[in-house]
Design a protein that fits this description.
This protein is of the alpha+beta class. It has a single domain, classed as Factor Xa Inhibitor (Irregular), CATH 4.10.410.60. Helices cover 33% and strands 15% of the residues. It has a three-stranded antiparallel sheet. The longest helix is centred in the last third of the chain and has 10 residues. The model has no long low-confidence stretch (mean pLDDT 89).
Length: 67
């Protein structure tokens, strides 16, 4: 059985935790950041879980659970 290729764009954008959650970084992190409030800029730094609807789609792109 041949190996399944990992989607390289997805491997850079998402990572899977030890418990199996798929985490992502919020978009708009660098664009026009100076004029945003400090609270908003701080919220961009945290990673958030992918919604349950998209989790199956992302896991298909990352067959081996890219770190």
């Amino acid at each position: 059985m041949p190996k399944i290729k990992t989607h390289k764009g997805a491997s850079r954008r998402f990572h899977i935790t030890g418990s199996g959650k798929v985490m992502r970084v919020k978009g708009g992190k660098s664009h026009l950041r100076r004029r945003k409030p400090k609270r908003t800029r701080r919220l961009f730094d945290e990673t958030i879980p992918v919604s349950s609807v998209d989790r199956k789609r992302v896991k298909r792109l990352l067959p081996y659970g890219v770190k």
